[in-house]
């Protein structure tokens, strides 16, 4: 006969569960409101009235934002910056980190010292802006990509992960006649797939949500990223297309806002659960040398 031990809940346990449930509801509530308003039919939409489920569902707000040139331009800009920026960040970060692990590389300690220095001291907004301007990158997508190819924290984590790889694998590859480039592509990269997956997600989320740099460096509205466009729509009430009312076939502004916010959140919310295990594993492997 087997006995199942069940812990008896105390008053403190019920209080903790109640507080956690309340905090969870507070965190989830804005998402429910955004989702509900974005799918509410314009004919039954009532400002500032909350529904867990819309009394009448409609995709009018989504059809409207996808029919506007400004929203489509922002999607194209954000997708380009995310794909190209993430790819270049992965290439630069892992190649530079691998170089910093090679103890026979001349000047390795000097470069590593510069990396650590930038981790402690940061130039600031104005010097960064002047550098971007002097390079002629203002109003260019590359102003959001080149300055962010890597960062000190990521380099240190990836370097620590690569240092933890068995050195015997590289030694055996050299005996077989492989050079450093072959070792990097045939041994280091395949063994680094958990870290690559983790930082691909990390970089992609950062690039997709890029806002402040885009606000500073991009003044051409046709090149705005999705986050800057949503800021103009939500805070500045900038119209996406022709102004009008629901009677003219244009949904209420609030439903359009919520639809745009939902559209911006959807890709990350969809992709993240599938890569979450790689994210946790990759960061932990890169954080501890073992």
TrEMBL record:
Identify the residues that the record assigns to the ABC transmembrane type-1 domain, covering every copy: 75-274
**Does Transport show up as a keyword for this record?**
yes
| Topological relation to the membrane, as annotated | Multi-pass membrane protein
Q: Which UniProt keywords apply?
A: Cell membrane, Membrane, Transmembrane, Transmembrane helix, Transport
Mark the transmembrane ranges: 14-35, 79-98, 110-132, 183-205, 256-275
| Family annotation (CDD domains) | TM_PBP2
Instruction: Please give the chief subcellular localization of this protein.
Output: membrane
The entry's localization annotation reads:
Cell membrane
The yes or no answer to whether the keyword tRNA processing is present is no
Can you tell me which family this protein belongs to? Belongs to the binding-protein-dependent transport system permease family.
UniProt-recorded name of the protein: Carbohydrate ABC transporter permease
Which species is this record about?
A: Paenibacillus agricola
| Phylogenetic lineage | Bacteria, Bacillati, Bacillota, Bacilli, Bacillales
